Hints:
This protein has about 170 residues and is of the alpha+beta class. It is about 25% helix and about 35% strand. The chain is built from 3 helices and 8 strands, in the order αββββαββαββ. β1 and β2 form a beta hairpin. The radius of gyration is 18 Å and the shape is globular.
Amino acid sequence: MILFKSERHFRVDHEHEIADIARSIIDSILYMVLGTVDETGRPWVSPVYFSSEQYKEFYWMSSPDASHSRNIALRPQVSMVVFDSRIPVGTGQAVYMSAVAEELTGSALARGVEIYNGRFESPAEYGVRTIKLEDVRSPAPYRLYRATVIEHWILDPNTRPDHRICVKL
């Protein structure tokens, strides 16, 4: 049912609705699936705990020796998806993203640690350990990474079969 007389108003409301859906998913889920590709074109996906800044930058901590980290060093273009895997089949919604990823260094690393630690008021409630700069600098076994989103999509809740639409966040 269309509640607005003008198609323009319907689109604006629809854009607002899908942006709210995308933000809600990102805010409520602890893990994203990170998709990378190695030098031969072989894809690799990894679940990682994340924090985000303004839904545009996503931060995670990983070993630089992990497959996805080595892949990012060679090919920084990544795909990501955030979704709730616990809900019944056919009722799910996800945020799909294309992004460019990098290992953080210098002043970007300090800012990244702040964002990573700032996701929750009480990180321990979620099993998240607060990190320090020395936890993600050599010789420590982990590094901090950031993916800067190029585009977000969700499945349009008003269409079937499933149809992805771009979301502005």
